[in-house]
């Protein structure tokens, strides 16, 4: 259970850093205030936790089966989606990190639309993984045991994730379109 608990703490820290990275990027895109250092520090801080969390998750799930005694643990559709989204995140992360130069070099071509589409798929996958996982971390840490409360938290979490997905997709793609003279 120890690795699982450390992984749950780390995953909550990752969510916090993600909110900072996302908040900073949205601020930068809305105000056109761009600070490369803040962008890199916030982005690579999330990336560091992301890699550690991915390693601990693989060890916990595949190697140690370190989940005995956790009430929510059953291989249901949620767990399958959680794992599929995890694999997709790893595959799409490089494209996210290098999306800006790729958009710049492909402006005006079909490749530009593809890069934006894959970016939105990356954001959707990320919010899907977080919406499916957040309350599980609270259960793992022993902060949540009531199944009804867990369902309420899941619904609130899902609503927040859907709103953030729409906000992020609209703000970032429309600002890119202005920057690169699209549409
Ligand atoms: C919904 C969530 C996210 C949003 C809205 C977001 C937004 C952005 C944007 C707009 C950029 C481009 C900055 C630019 O060059 O103009 C960026 C860069 C970056 N992002 Fe994210 N990101 C998200 C999730 C993540 C995740 C999960 C990671 C890491 C695991 C990450 C790591 C990075 C890194 C390393 C960069 C490059 C920073 C740079 O070179 O300045 N992002 N992000
Ligand atoms: C910024 C990106 C990510 C965030 C915010 C995040 C967040 C979370 C959270 C909160 C949990 C619940 C922890 C628990 O059940 O105690 C979780 C579980 C999980 N995550 Fe992530 N995650 C991210 C990326 C990834 C990646 C890249 C992988 C790739 C391996 C991954 C694989 C998993 C797996 C397999 C679980 C289930 C672990 C278990 O049941 O023990 N996650 N994630």
Compact overview of the structure:
With 183 residues, this protein is an all-alpha fold.
Number of helices: 6
Radius of gyration (CA) equals 18 Å
What share of the residues lie within helices?
over 70%
Which parts are unreliable, with pLDDT below 50 for 5 consecutive residues or more? none
Q: Which class do the helix and strand fractions yield?
A: mainly alpha
Overall average residue pLDDT? 93
What form results from the Cα inertia axes? elongated
What distance separates the N and C termini? 52 Å
**What composes the largest sheet?**
none
What does this structure look like?
- The chain has 183 residues and is mostly helical.
- It has one domain.
- It is 83% helix and 0% strand.
- It is built from six helices and no strands.
- It is elongated.
- The termini are far apart.
- The mean pLDDT is 93.
- Residues 4, 8, 11, 14-15, 18, 46, 50, 53-54, 57-58, 60-61, 67, 82-83, 86, 89-90, 126, 129-130, 133-134, 136-137, 140 line the site of one protoporphyrin IX containing FE (HEM).
């Amino acid at each position: 259970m120890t690795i699982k608990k450390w992984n749950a703490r780390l995953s909550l820290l990752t969510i916090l850093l993600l909110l900072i990275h996302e908040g900073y990027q949205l601020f930068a895109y809305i105000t056109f205030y761009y600070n490369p250092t803040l962008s890199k520090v916030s982005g690579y801080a999330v990336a560091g936790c992301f890699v550690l969390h991915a390693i601990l998750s693989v060890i916990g799930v595949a190697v140690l089966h370190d989940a005995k005694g956790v009430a929510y643990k059953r291989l249901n559709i949620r767990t399958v989606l959680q794992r599929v989204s995890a694999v997709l995140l790893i595959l799409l992360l490089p494209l996210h990190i290098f999306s800006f130069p790729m958009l710049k070099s492909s402006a005006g071509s079909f490749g530009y639309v593809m890069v934006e589409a894959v970016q939105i798929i990356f954001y959707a996958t990320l919010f899907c993984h977080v919406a499916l996982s957040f309350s599980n971390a609270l259960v793992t840490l022993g902060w949540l045991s009531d199944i009804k409360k867990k369902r309420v938290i899941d619904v609130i979490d899902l609503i927040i994730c859907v709103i953030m997905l729409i906000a992020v997709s609209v703000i970032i793609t429309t600002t890119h379109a202005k920057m690169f003279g699209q549409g």
